[in-house]
Amino acid sequence: PPPADPRRPPAPETTESGAAEPEPSASETTEPQPRVTEEPTPRAPDDLPTPPAGAPPRRSGIAEQALSVVGFVCAAVAVLFQPVVFGLAGVALGVAGHVRGEPLGRWAAIAAGAGMLAGTVLSILLAPG
Asked: What average pLDDT score do residues 104-128 get?
């Protein structure tokens, strides 16, 4: 046989009957195929997923937890001024924030209750007479 031309693909091997053997399929090849894994694209902290249609726009920072923040303010004010009024307002705001899914809502309600109790005790101790 003449020497093989390196630019031409090799001819299929033939069996004794002269018929060409089928080439192995991709799943029958002996070489392991490299596994291609697609790595997730790193996202920036501000790159938030798009909210569903009809949802209110997502707020960030303090605006996201407004009820809880005002509840903490009421808790602090309840220690010094009118503990029952500001304490109950802080508890209500903390519970409302918790129901809305604010992470600090429960803690604002607890702080307002403690502020109301501390303010009541403080006003009893410091009352004239």
From this structure: 93
